[in-house]
Write a structure and sequence with these properties.
10 strands, alpha/beta, three-stranded mixed beta sheet, 3 helices, 25% strand
Length: 187
């Protein structure tokens, strides 16, 4: 990861997306540096994709206190939505819901339509983020480890197997599970 000091927002967002960086935190502050440029970076060099990187951007010398015309957040990532909100000094909150159409961690809908104008730091904008599709848990005790693994891969669910002795259960069969048949879980 190079030093991004002086980079504009568009270049930073492209770099983050192109390199699949998954733990970038941003903030904006008033400064005498050019508006929408990186003025501080917490880490650079050889990093893992999920290592935390904190970026501070400049609002410029004067804070914009006018109205902001909202964009359509649908199918934008949670990071992109949060970036936009912080960049424009907007109050926001996230809600979550299951969606089989919009992939996990991407916006499904917003409470104020695209094109509507909102005042800076005034109206709270609610953006609903996808939790991915609902996953209904089968009776895992009736499946073998290979079938459970295949089900987990197909549904993007993490597994954790552990061995234990139980004189009432045949060898290599499931003794217990952390979820029950019919439970609805997330990816």
């Amino acid at each position: 990861v190079p030093s991004m000091i002086g980079w504009d927002t568009e270049r930073v967002l492209k770099f983050i997306k192109d390199n699949y960086l998954s733990n970038v935190k941003v903030e904006f502050i008033q400064s005498d540096m050019a508006k929408d440029t990186v003025i501080n970076q917490s880490a650079s060099g050889n990093l893992k994709r999920d290592d935390e990187i904190n970026l501070t951007f400049s609002y410029g010398e004067e804070l914009d206190t006018s109205e902001v015309s909202l964009i359509d957040f649908t199918e934008k990532s949670r990071f992109e939505v949060e970036f936009y909100m912080k960049q424009h000094q907007l109050k926001y909150k996230f809600e979550e819901e299951f969606s089989s159409k919009i992939k996990r961690d991407y916006a499904v809908k917003q409470n104020i339509a695209a094109g509507e104008k909102v005042l800076v730091n005034d109206t709270e904008i609610v953006v609903t983020i996808s939790k991915g599709p609902k996953i209904k848990v089968p009776d895992l005790k009736k499946l073998d480890m290979a079938s459970i693994t295949e089900w987990a891969i197909n549904n993007k669910v993490k597994l954790n197997f552990s061995d234990s002795y139980d004189d009432t259960v045949k060898k290599n069969n499931i003794i217990s599970t952390s979820v029950n048949e019919g439970d609805i879980i997330e990816q």
